[in-house]
Specification:
This protein has a single domain (about 5-125), classed as Roll (Nuclear Transport Factor 2, Chain: A), CATH 3.10.450.50. The chain has four helices and six strands. The protein has helices at about 5-20, 25-30, 50-60, 120-125; strands at about 30-40, 45-50, 65-75, 80-90, 95-105, 110-115. Pfam families: SnoaL_2.
Amino acid sequence: MSTNEAALALGRTFHQALISGAWDGIRALLHDDATWTLPGDNTISGTAEGGDAVVERAQQIASYGLDFELLHLLVSSENMALSLHNTARRGDVVLDEYLATVCRLRDGKIASIETYLSDVPGMNAFFV
């Protein structure tokens, strides 16, 4: 399997684990020192440090009932990104954002994740 094929497979596995709540599956994809950085000023913003903290971040985000629609899986020569459209509703507050979740890979696992958002103010309003 080529590097690009492996990165695409890892991205598909990550997305499937996220939408199905397979937290052990996500943890298996991460290095112990993995990080996940999100923009904004809300309960999920900042950097989660360590594989277990990254899984806790994924659980926290999913607990808000998001629909994680996968638009595209993207690869570079060494890394992978998921292009997503996330939507959810909490009372009168609606989340409707496009994002790129960029995963830097090391030895076939995720070393770091950085998420880029289309609507940081909307994210701040939703994740309180």
